[in-house]
Amino acid sequence: MTISAVTDYLLPATMRGIAAQAVAALGVLTGLWIALSPSFLTLQHGGGNAAVANLIAGLAVAAVGAASLAGPRGFAGLQSAAVLLGVWVIISPFILDAKFSIAAPMYWSNIVSGGYLVVLALAGLANRSAGPLADRTRAGPGPVPRARTLIPAGPALH
Question: Once rounded to an integer, what is the mean pLDDT over residues 40-63?
Fold first, then answer.
């Protein structure tokens, strides 16, 4: 295995690949915010909340984003899971409020974070399902053409 083979795999070669990596990275950051936000918001505002539910959901979102970063173009199944997790983050404060006292800022944090996550995941799915026509950097499947050299390889045949 050569170094160029490794770098060809690790670096997304197309704009679709770069967009998928960006969506996955933003998903990881959103997941970390969802997991850690109860600590910040409850220290500033009174009232208990369902911090454990946010911690679990946030870590799951971060794990989905990190797993999507593993592939150069993301994974559609993981982005579908991110949509479901985003919907859970949006509705969870309303469901958990019956048992736990949830601070008002947590409602807003979960609604905004969950909505952002759903939009990110849907953008990733749209990017994923755009098909080969969205690949603007290559004409299609097949080998990449070699660059022309200025030095001839041997005597010219006429």
Answer: 80
